[in-house]
Amino acid sequence: MDNPFIIKSYESKELFCDREEELELMLRNVDNHSDMTLISQRRMGKTGLILRLFEELHSSRPDIHTIYLDIFSSQNIDDFIKLFAEATMHSFQPKTSIGDRLMTFIKSLRPQISFDPITGEPQVQIAYQTPHEKEYTLRGLFDFLDNQGVSIVIAIDEFQQIREYPEQNMEALLRTYIQQMHNLHFIFCGSRKHLMADIFANAKKPFYSSTTFISLTKISEEAYSAFIRRLFSERQRVIEDEALQFILTWTRRHTYYTQQLCHTIYANGQTTIGLEEVKKACGQLMQQGEAVYLQYRQMLTDKQWAYLIAIAKEGSVIQITSSKFLKRHKLGNASVSRRLADALCEKGLLNGESTLEGTVYTVSDVFLSRWMERL
Ligand SMILES: Nc1ncnc2c1ncn2[C@@H]1O[C@H](COP(=O)(O)OP(=O)(O)OP(=O)(O)O)[C@@H](O)[C@H]1O
Ligand SMILES: [Mg+2]
C-alpha cells in the first residue's frame, strides 16, 4: 500500500489530520462572504488547508467555484497576470460554458497560449506595451470572473510576494479591484508573517482591516496521535505509545516534520514500531539533511552559526537579551543578540513567534534544530 503520510501538497480527507475548527470557520467565512487572511509559520499546513477547504466546498457547495493561485514564483505584475490567467483556465475547463467564454476572453488579450508537454496544462504568454494596458488586463480578468453569475473563491498563496514587485501600486490596485467585486471572495495566504501583517494590519496600507485573520498553529496532541495511530493500524501496523509520544515531541508537532518522520518510519517497513524504530528514522532524517546544514554553515558568519546552535540547544528562547542566555552561550551583549536574531530571521533560518510574553525564537527547521543540539 502507498505511504499514507503525505509530505507533498494535499491528497484526501482521509490522509489529512484534523483542522476541523479552522475548516468550520473558513466555511462560515465563505458563506458570509468574508475575505480571509491565513497565516502561520512555514510548513504548518496552510496550503494543505486551502486545498482541504476547496474539496469541502466542491462536495457541500457545488455552486461555488474555486481558483488556487500560488504567486511565489512571480516577480512583477506581468507574472501575476500570467499565473492568474493560467489558474483561472485550470479551474474552468474548456467545453463548459464559462470555460468557453474564458477562452474567448483570454484570446482577446492576444496572448500566446501553449500547452505544457508533460502536464497538458495551458500556459499563457501575454504581450504588453504599457503599464496602463497591464492594469486594464488585470482589471479585465477580475471583471470577467465577476460577471459570470457564479460565486468564486480565489485563494492567493504566498501573497507577500507582491511586495517584491517593482510596481509600487500593486497593493492599492488589487485592493481597489477586489473591493468592487460582488461574486469574488478571497483568501490571502502567506508565511512571511511580518510582511503579511504589514499588508493587512498596517493602518497606512490599502488592505488594512479588510479581511478576517486566521492563524494556523500546531495540531493538538490528541488529534495528531489518534491520526498517526489510525493510519498505521489501518495498514496492519502497530505503534507503541512510547514511540508515538516520542514522534510528537521530537518533531514539536510541526506538521511537515511530523509527517516526514512518520513517512520515513512507514517506509522503513517494520510492522511493530517501538522507540528504537523511531530513533532510527530520526537518525536517517538528520543524516539526509546534513549536506544542506553544512551549506548553511558556509553561508553564515561564525557568530550567526554559533547563535543558531545556541537557540537549538535551548529548544526555544524568549529572552534573547537576558544575561543568562548571553553568558551561557558567550554571545556578547544584548544589541549583538538582537542583530543576530534579526539577520537569521531574515534568512528564514530562525523563526520568531509573537506571544503575550514576548517573541519566542526557535530554529525554523526542526530537523536542523535537532541536529544542532547534538553538536
Ligand atoms: N492537516 C494535515 N494533515 C496531514 N498532513 C498535513 C496537514 N497539513 C499539512 N500537511 C502536510 O504537511 C506539509 C506542509 O504543509 P503545507 O505545504 O500545507 O504547509 P504551508 O504552511 O503551506 O507551508 P509553506 O509556508 O512552506 O508554504 C505538506 O507535506 C502537507 O502535505
Ligand atoms: Mg504553502
Can you summarize this structure?
This protein has 375 residues and is an alpha/beta fold.
| Coarse morphology | globular
Q: Can you tell me the residue ranges where pLDDT is under 50 for at least 5 consecutive residues?
A: none
CATH class of the largest domain: Alpha Beta
CA-CA gap between termini: 38 Å
Strand order of the largest sheet: 2-5-6-1-7
- Overall structural class, as computed from helix and strand content, comes to alpha/beta
CATH architecture of the largest domain: 3-Layer(aba) Sandwich
- Distinct small-molecule ligands in the complex: adenosine-5'-triphosphate, magnesium ion
Helix content: 40-55%
Q: How would a crystallographer describe the biggest sheet?
A: 5 strands, parallel
Helix count, per DSSP?
15
Rounded mean pLDDT is 93
> Please, what is the CATH homologous superfamily of the largest domain?
P-loop containing nucleotide triphosphate hydrolases
Beta strand %: 5-15%
Q: Strand-and-helix sequence, N→C?
A: HEHEHHEEHEHEHEHEHHEHHHHEEH
CATH fold topology of the largest domain: Rossmann fold
Rg of Cα set? 23 Å
